[in-house]
């Protein structure tokens, strides 16, 4: 059986995983769940699903029947391997199909571990500001984002995230930078090194093929309810 990737019908936290799968040309199935609604689901056994706020529709019906140790989206099911969480899935796919994507030395692995956490924090911050979009949240975000983008640019010294070879973090880096560019054109600063990375990544043949396929989900990036264009 083909492995299965499960996520909502949007780009979101599954974006880097889909890009990695396209890069490696992995044959897999995708279980796409409907986006959250505001309908109350009274008969659910999950407190998340029973809430009077957003109901996760068909995901709630399957959430606890898939055998996932920590049920969440995105998930990856491959035989007896059942994983949730974006970073765990990225590293598992890399480890089982292209171990060099995890870094070739202890030093590389250390750099990747730090960078993935920095990028994840940046992505979460953007998600929050898109959801709230109040002046205080936006002001703090802009200050922090410019600082983080400058650090990324200053530490970007090769073709890819940590040098001359593609790693699993490049797929996360691309998604984060794409979202930042979409939100505020990279916060109105040039960052030519980061812009070049985006163009270089999109020029990878297997990525280019995927982005022009019917399978590619260009948006929404997070949710239709966000007040920004994400």
From TrEMBL:
GO terms for molecular function: glutathione transferase activity. The keyword Secreted does not apply. Its EC number is 2.5.1.18. It catalyses: RX + glutathione = an S-substituted glutathione + a halide anion + H(+). It is an enzyme of class 2 (transferase). It holds the Pfam family GST_C_3. InterPro entries: Glutathione-S-Trfase_C-like, Glutathione-S-Trfase_C_sf, Glutathione_S-Trfase, Glutathione_S-Trfase_N, GST_C, GST_superfamily, Thioredoxin-like_sf. Residues 1-101 form the GST N-terminal domain. GO terms for biological process: glutathione metabolic process. Residues 105-221 form the GST C-terminal domain. Keywords: Transferase. PANTHER family: GLUTATHIONE S-TRANSFERASE (PTHR11571), GLUTATHIONE TRANSFERASE (PTHR11571:SF222). Belongs to the GST superfamily. Mu family. Conjugation of reduced glutathione to a wide number of exogenous and endogenous hydrophobic electrophiles. This is glutathione transferase. It comes from Orchesella cincta (Springtail). The lineage of its organism: Eukaryota, Metazoa, Ecdysozoa, Arthropoda, Hexapoda.
